[in-house]
Amino acid sequence: MTQTYDTIVIGAGVMGASLAFHFAERGLKVAVLERKVTASGATGHSSGLVRMHYDLAAESELTFASYKNYFNNWKERVGGDCGFMQTGFMQIAKREHEDKLRGNVANQQRIGINTSVISAADVKKLIPDFITDQFDFAAYEPDSGYADATLTTNSFLESAKHNGAKLIQNCEVTAIHTAGGKVIGVGTTQGDLASPIVVNAAGPWAKHVASLAGVDVPLETWTHDVAFLHRPPSLGKIPAVIDDTINCYFRPEGSALILAAGEDESLRGEAPDAEDQTPTPTFVEKLIDSLVRRIPKIEESGLHSIHVGRDGITPDQRAIYSASGLDGFYLACGLSGTGFKTSPAAGASLVELILDGVPKTVDITPFRFERFANGQLLEGEYGYGNIWK
Ligand SMILES: Cc1cc2nc3c(=O)[nH]c(=O)nc-3n(C[C@H](O)[C@H](O)[C@H](O)COP(=O)(O)OP(=O)(O)OC[C@H]3O[C@@H](n4cnc5c(N)ncnc54)[C@H](O)[C@@H]3O)c2cc1C
Prior knowledge:
Layout: E1 3-4, E2 7-10, H1 14-25, E3 30-33, E4 49-50, H2 57-69, H3 74-77, E5 89-92, H4 98-111, E6 116-119, H5 120-126, E7 137-141, E8 145-146, H6 149-162, E9 166-168, E10 173-179, E11 182-188, E12 191-194, E13 198-200, H7 206-211, E14 220-230, E15 240-243, E16 248-253, E17 257-262, E18 267-268, H8 283-294, E19 303-313, E20 320-323, E21 329-333, H9 343-356, H10 370-373
Parallel strand pairs: 1-12, 2-3, 2-13, 3-9, 5-15, 13-21
Antiparallel strand pairs: 4-8, 5-7, 6-7, 10-11, 11-12, 14-17, 14-18, 14-19, 15-16, 16-17, 20-21
This protein binds flavin-adenine dinucleotide.
Flavin-adenine dinucleotide binds at residues 10-16, 33-36, 40-43, 45-49, 149, 172-173, 201-205, 209, 224, 226, 309-311, 335, 337-341.
């Protein structure tokens, strides 16, 4: 007999897990279908930065709500652990972006985010190991840091299961069933399941999953190399940093390692299932050359390991949290290499949109699917340009 659910979530990455948590909290009978195992997609390779500096206010609002209501209050709000480490965060800006940096920080302060513009001299006082002569200003967020994306996913799912959700792993969705112009369920490698609501949270596979419902989502894949370096023993404390002057980001990884990656070397359009553990040939060399310009002590470091992750990316490099045009079929995809930190509030808001017709946690209507068809791509008020070159 076909099992029936109030809602089906396709994909058990952090986005699907957040959706499942919020659906189950509202008392819905939810099934999360995962073709492999939890966090086996983009989420399992996420760098986990939790920062609030964006050039699009809607993204800052999503991260702020995620930080305030979830990451900073995980045990009480969700239960379990998300591994949040409050290291502080710095956005180091190019000199020509000073006005934009100031504009974005002012917008973020209006949202309620604890952020300010600090001078290069202030950066040096905070982090004496940094060279600070290639920039004048940075934004500094003392509350931000990083979290563990796999832990976050699993604790969302544990809590959802506690509230009655069913997680079915090794279960690939192979068909989306419709009748009378509405979704009625899915076909999977473990049989058919019925539901009037199906959400596509299939990460880099979301374009294919949407096509099963006849919906064409403008998604390609984005493949990103991440290095783990041994922390030089003499290096003092460092925060999480996005450094636009050297096109890199980095952060501590526990007490022994530094996680670092570039912003301008990602491959586009690989097959979602393409082999994903070979970094681009110049990755490490270029990364180290860049990092030593900020932290000379990196010379004393050594490579620990590299991993390669893949996410789905949209033409404006912003997510889609939206109805799809097909009644009952929703999109939570295209998180564009930046959707971990926003997933708690994005999940809450999309569940509100689906069940109540209006998102209350954060207004996610800017992330509607129709923006692509209408040529209304998202752009920040004080835009820095695309995050990923
Ligand atoms: C290397 C890397 C570093 C990143 N760093 C950061 C960061 O520092 N901060 C930040 O905020 N964001 C970061 N991101 C982005 C963030 O991690 C992703 O946006 C987020 O994890 C995507 O989650 P997801 O649940 O949408 O997708 P995924 O984690 O990819 O989950 C999708 C799931 O769907 C499953 N699936 C696919 N097809 C089917 C099917 N047909 N049937 C059933 N299941 C299916 C897959 O197996 C997968 O488990 C990074 C991403 C990468 C790759």
